[in-house]
Amino acid sequence: MIPAxxxxxxxxxxxxxxxxxxxxxxxxxxxxAAHGRGEAFDYLIGERTTESxxxxxxxxxxxxxxARSPVISVNGNTAALAAASIAELxxxxxxxxxxxxxxxxEERVEKITRLLESAGVEVLSGRAEPLLPLSHARALCxxxxxFSADSVLVPLEDGDRCQALVSMGKRVIAIDLNPLSRTAxxxxxxxxxxxxxxxxxxxxxxxxxxxxxGERLMRSPDNxxxxxxxxxxxxxxxxxxxx
Amino acid sequence: MIPAxxxxxxxxxxxxxxxxxxxxxxxxxxxxAAHGRGEAFDYLIGERTTESxxxxxxxxxxxxxxARSPVISVNGNTAALAAASIAELxxxxxxxxxxxxxxxxEERVEKITRLLESAGVEVLSGRAEPLLPLSHARALCxxxxxFSADSVLVPLEDGDRCQALVSMGKRVIAIDLNPLSRTAxxxxxxxxxxxxxxxxxxxxxxxxxxxxxGERLMRSPDNxxxxxxxxxxxxxxxxxxxx
Lengths: 243, 243
Description:
CATH superfamily of chain A: Phosphopantoate/pantothenate synthetase
Largest interface: A-B, 37 and 38 residues
Order of helices and strands of chain A: HHHEHEHEEEHEHEHHH
Strand order of the largest sheet of chain A: 2-1-5-6-7
Structural class of chain A: alpha/beta
Oligomer: homodimer
Strand content of chain A: 5-15%
Number of strands of chain A: 7
CATH topology of chain A: Rossmann fold
Helix content of chain A: 40-55%
Largest sheet of chain A: 5 strands, parallel
CATH class of chain A: Alpha Beta
CATH architecture of chain A: 3-Layer(aba) Sandwich
Number of domains of chain A: 1
């Protein structure tokens, strides 16, 4: 048991939750390592939602609300850490939810689908087809899901896949703690924040933004501004780290 | 399969290797997440051996060569990623090799021992005793191994255990990519470099250093210099990272 007053309580809890989902086959072992990577960047960013990330989250909400056909692409780590938050965001944004995995097996797709459904998510189903410009199983997605979407929210996505979606002309909203990752640089908009802080924040903004603010936010989702702000935050934190 | 043209092929391959060793019980699930944290710092340091790390590696070699009784402490991640490099370093430095685990079970000790032996490592054996100033299984080590060593190389070590070894008066050489970690700050000398680059570099230096250079290197293994240099490297990399 982790004491609730531990300064890194949330982070330790998330790690335990992921390890337990890895034992059940929902999270891939590679996903566990990827999570550790995120932890390091969250540590560098101060384990809090920065001001610029909050603005990115409002912009993400505006993009989802104005989309013709928004889809949230969910992988094992996202389902393990934030199934209930995905349900709430789906309800606030009316986005479709598709399970899309880097280490794809039909067994894992089914396990993750069940986990999401038990949290109240409506999961898109059907026969996945090789519709993305990627090799092998990574090309698979649903024709009526990600393939047809105009805006896709990809929490914790691989760089290749983010690029493939952008190259198809989609607006891609990434949630990525590493402001230098290919995903972060390639996405239309990157939310540099930890998943379980970012999703409720986007959901909250969905309920608050009026059309005028939405228009204004949408006019310039300047991704490079958000990446630079996150980087400045990290550099500031490192400046006196050894003093 | 990770496509060979993926820009982060080497890093993803290491992650796959660790995941496969986790399936076999050599690497712990916590070890996988810890590896991910290391990946993030390696990314920030540029996934290369910096000039200051190279100097730290030569200093590490000098410390091992001048030791009366050097021991390399090997855990699951180290065995999974670098068993052959450990064999080469052992041969170049005449250090003993002891399996020492944070998440210790006798089954894991045996599996790791077999993995190391199949790579040509001579592994110290015997009955582990609670000789380190730590609680529970973490106190266990071999009387004729780590307990009697004057210098211990600990790749990827936990902060508590690093501190315990230092408190016993040993010279501790850590390999740790996070210059802010407790291990990095506590060790006598910290090599801020990735394991599979650091070990061959230390081994190479063992064959090159003459007694005079060894003396000179040994005179001031100033750990705070190496940590500050690594942090400056990271901050410098972040400075123009988005240009």
